[in-house]
Amino acid sequence: MTGRTKYLLDEADLPTRWYNVVADLAEPPPPPLHPGTGEPVGPDDLAPLFPQALIAQEVTADRYVDIPEEVLDVYRLWRPSPLYRARRLEKALGTPARIYYKYEGVSPVGSHKPNTAVPQAFYNAAEGVRRLTTETGAGQWGSALAFASATFGLECEVWQVRASYDQKPYRKIMMETFGAKLHPSPSEETASGRAVLAEHPDSTGSLGIAISEAVEKAAADPDARYALGSVLNHVLLHQTVIGEEALKQFELAEDTPDLIVGCTGGGSNFGGLAFPFLREKLAGRIAPEILAVEPSACPSLTRGKYAYDFGDTAGLTPLLKMHTLGHEFIPDPIHAGGLRYHGMSPLLSHIYELGLIGAVAIPQQECFAAGVRFARSEGIIPAPEPTHALAACVREALRCKETGEEKVILTALCGHAHLDLPAYAAYLSGDMVDNELPDSVLAEALASVPAG
Ligand SMILES: *Cc1c(COP(=O)(O)O)cnc(C)c1O
């Protein structure tokens, strides 16, 4: 098989179950708490927001969850996704390292997000829900949920962070083509949005504010539920199809990764790729290093506090134990919109605390340089988010060039940039800046973490 570029699976090899890493951890992650009582939230607290099937998946200790046939049917539109060996990039870098990437840009909206949008829409429709509300930053998640909602006959209402709503009109058109209704956030539609606008009429918004708006709207409508595109356990669970496929593809390649690297916004594409490999590592069969990469402008794992905090700005969600920069933190408007969330998945945060993964923060110009280098050798223009993972790959590949190490690197190329090209324009024109987060700004943001 030498010289091979793509490792492809047949539709018959599509995984039939999702993997729940909680079953293999020495201790489970700390539970979400009710902000009023300080007690763990129960199913009744979550029922206004999520269907029963997803609440059950959120807390399950079962190692595997079967993927419904209706979901597999939709997955087959683009799955299994390809695993590539980046031979041309290796050559361009002059590295002895072997670099592989699992490409999720083949999905209908160009990212990994439909892997969870589809089952979320399916379970809601199966329980008689008529309407889904959600937030979106760059628009990847909103497009995925709009597509999935159309597939199962649900209405979809999306609050899009104002900065992206203004800068990225094509995502809006995509969501509307799938039938979704869009609001810029902060909006006049909700009390949370109006409160922000009263104080900051020119607010460019944040994911935290948009979540408050979508949650508020769903909670007030018995026919509606809320859908989250990252962070929660059931989202990371659904994304494990990525890693399960990649394991089979590495068998075809007769190779084994030494380093697995992914970008982390809320942690779902990274967890989805890494968790099945972590299962194999915990069983002693392989020993890869697993590395999360975040932007220097929003470094929740590397500089955040591991504490109970709200998932949204207004404080409407349960308290989640996670690495957080404070729920009032509004990151600089960097181009990787999907990495601008103040917190990290509680499950991934817990796994980080257990010492099972590492993390590094990289400034955006180095990331776009890696993205351009990748595009010029592999032909795919990466979404701004996975350029962070590629920057870490390039660092490691160049280190291998010095040492002569034939390290095997696997990365999640979780989306393409076809609707984010203005970010590349900013980089190519030399207008891009690195938004390092000053200690003083961080300290002020961390003050919004509730005292525990
Ligand atoms: C949403 C998104 C991210 C960030 O979310 P994760 O849950 O950390 O994966 C990263 N990349 C792309 C392309 C996205 O759409």
Features:
single chain, 452 residues, alpha/beta, Rossmann fold, four-stranded parallel sheet, binds pyridoxal-5'-phosphate
Descriptive overview:
This protein is α/β, with parallel strands linked by helices. The chain has a domain at 6-13 and 79-110 and 242-446: Rossmann fold. The chain is built from 18 helices and 15 strands. The chain has helices at residues 43-46, 52-59, 69-75, 87-93, 114-126, 140-151, 162-167, 169-177, 191-199, 207-219, 233-253, 268-282, 300-303, 346-353, 364-378, 387-403, 421-428, 439-446; strands spanning 6-7, 17-19, 64-66, 83-85, 98-103, 131-136, 155-161, 181-185, 224-226, 259-263, 289-295, 305-310, 319-324, 358-362, 408-413. The protein has a seven-stranded mixed sheet, sandwiched between helices. A four-stranded parallel sheet has the order 8-7-6-9, sandwiched between helices. Strands 2-3 form a two-stranded antiparallel ribbon. β6 (131-136), α6 and β7 (155-161) form a beta-alpha-beta unit. α6 (140-151) runs parallel beside α8. The longest helix is centred in the middle third of the chain and has 21 residues, at 233-253. It is globular, with a radius of gyration of 20 Å. The protein starts with 5 loop residues before the first strand and ends in a 6-residue tail after the last helix. The model has no long low-confidence stretch (mean pLDDT 95). The structure holds pyridoxal-5'-phosphate. The site of pyridoxal-5'-phosphate has 20 residues, from α6 and α12.
